[in-house]
Structure formats: structure tokens, C-alpha cells
Amino acid sequence: MPMQFRIMTTAEIPGGMRLREFAGWNQTPADWERFLRASPEGCFFAEERGQVVGTTTTIVYSGKVAWIGMVLVDPDYRGRGMGTALLEAAIEHLDARGVPTVKLDATPQGRPIYEKLGFVPEYEIERWVLHREPTTVVTAKPSPVPDIDHIVELDHEVFGADRGELLHSLHLDAPDFTLAVELQGEVVGYALGRGGSRADHLGPWMAWDEPTAWELLDEFLRRSARDTVFVDCLKDNPVARALVRSRNFQFSRPLTRMVRGPNSYPGRPELLCAILGPEFG
User: Fold this and answer.
1) Is 235 buried (19+), middle (13-18) or exposed (0-12) by CB count in 10 A?
2) Which of 94, 114, 152, 249 could form a Cys-Cys staple with 164, CB 3.0–4.6 A?
3) Which range (30-34, 56-60, 138-142, 236-240) has the least confidence?
């Protein structure tokens, strides 16, 4: 049977997780469900002989900024143009919806492919990884529960589009990782996180100043019980990079945020210590 491209459903999540395992990525079935819930007609997979051999996902924020992620290809099928074909299917879907701006985070290997499809660099990102002894007992420091709606409001300004549904989902799954610092009733820094298949992931992580960034990072690390933590810092944010180094994170790999179409909603990346993650933006 020839290879077929189809709209992804929850039935294909185990196949997507198999490809994630090959790639060594950190996503969970819950993350795949987030993609499908946000964009039920905008996630695609390639199938051959009844097996998922390639995937890509899209999410549209505020109807104006789309995100492409989870471009995965079975190792036995690489080098055949499948990844490019899946990307083209995602772009065609987004163009048909009239979404003006499409973004993604590219590895050095993927960047030339994205450039051929009209993407240009926006800024650089670095993944940092912490390996440590796992914590056996985590006790949350008594503090007011952050107002997720206030965080969503500020994230809209920082990211450039409304990601409220996604952030609420992250908060619901890992409320202990939702952190906020307030000054005179206003949020001046926030962080969220999620438990991945390989590590806890800190992001987004935003702070107006260095002391706030310190407080959020240390509190997240205290609340995480895992032996591995990921964070994707903006390369142009020297404070964030210095902070993770000081906490024994090690540089892992570079990424490039890329954009196709007018970058009319750039947000305020100068306030970001770390992005949510390359799969979500």
C-alpha cells in the first residue's frame, strides 16, 4: 500500500510516541492531546502499511499566529522528503485558514529546509539541561495560589498572542509548577512547567528583573522532583543564561525561532528568560 497523509486523531498518539522515542524528545501523550484538542484538523501523519511513520502539528493562537511543531519522521523513512511534505501540508492548511504568520523552532539540521519554504530567523534559543540527584520529598512552600488568568493576560503581551487555553491546560496538569511574583498587585514575573517523558520542563519563564528571575528559577527547581530538568533560554538574555549556569545546567543544543509571513505580533521577547518549548512556541 502506498504512503498516505491523513489528519491525525487520538488513535495515532501511540504511533507519534514511537517516533518521539526514536528522536529522544520529551513529549507525553498529554502533549499530543493538547495538539489535537487545539487543532483537530491541523495535525497530520504519514502512514505506510498501517504504521505511523511521520507527523507534524499546528496550533493557531488568536487566529493570527500559528505554530508548527512535532515534525517527526521514522528513521527508516528519512531522506525521502517526507518531513518536507508534512510541512507543506501544515503550511497549506494554515494558508487556507488565512493565518498570516507562521512560526517554528528549527534545529541546525532543519533550518535549511525551513528557509526553502519561506521561513526567516527571528532569534536564537539554547536548550540547557540539569542533571542532579532526584528529590524524594517535595513540600510546597506556603504561598498564595497564583491567578492563572493574570499570568495569561501578561503572557499575551509577552508572547504576542493569546495562549490562554494552552496555559490553563498546563496549569491544570501541574499546578505546583505555576509560579508568579507580584509587586503592588501586578505580576512582574511568571513561570509554568510540565512533566515530560524524560524530564521536567521549565517554560515559559518571564521576569521583569534579575531578582524575580532568580526567585522563579529556584522555586521551580525546589518543586521539581525529577533528576533531569530542561529549559530553553533565549540566547540574547544574558541574565537567564547566567542563572542556569549558576545552577549547574549544561548547554545541550541550539535552536532558531523562525517566522514565515509578516511578523506583526512579535510580543516582547526581551522579557523572556525561556520559551514554553519548541513544540508549542
Assistant:
1) middle
2) 152
3) 138-142
53 to 15, 57, 125: CA distances (angstroms): 8, 14, 28
Residue with cell 517535595: 138
Report pLDDT for 5.
83
Beta-bridge partner residues of 189 = 181, 207
| Cβ-defined contacts of 8-11 (< 8 Å, 24+) | 8/35, 8/36, 8/43, 8/44, 8/45, 8/55, 8/57, 9/36, 10/36
Domains, the chain: 4-99 (3.40.630.30), 127-274 (3.40.630.90)
Query: What is the DSSP code (8-state) at residue 197?
Result: S
**Are 188 and 181 contacting, i.e. CB atoms less than 8 angstroms apart?**
yes
This prediction's pTM: 0.94
Q: Grid cell 522515542 — which residue? A: 21
- Residue of 193, 190, 195, 202 whose CA lies nearest to 147: 190
> For 264-278, what is the mean pLDDT?
96
Q: Enumerate the H helices of 24-110 as residue ranges.
A: 29-38, 82-96
Is the Cβ–Cβ distance between 228 and 200 less than 8 Å? Answer: yes
- DSSP, collapsed to helix, strand or coil, labels residue 10 as helix
- Work out the number of other CB atoms within 10 angstroms of the CB of residue 241: 18
Distance CA 182, CA 170 (A): 20
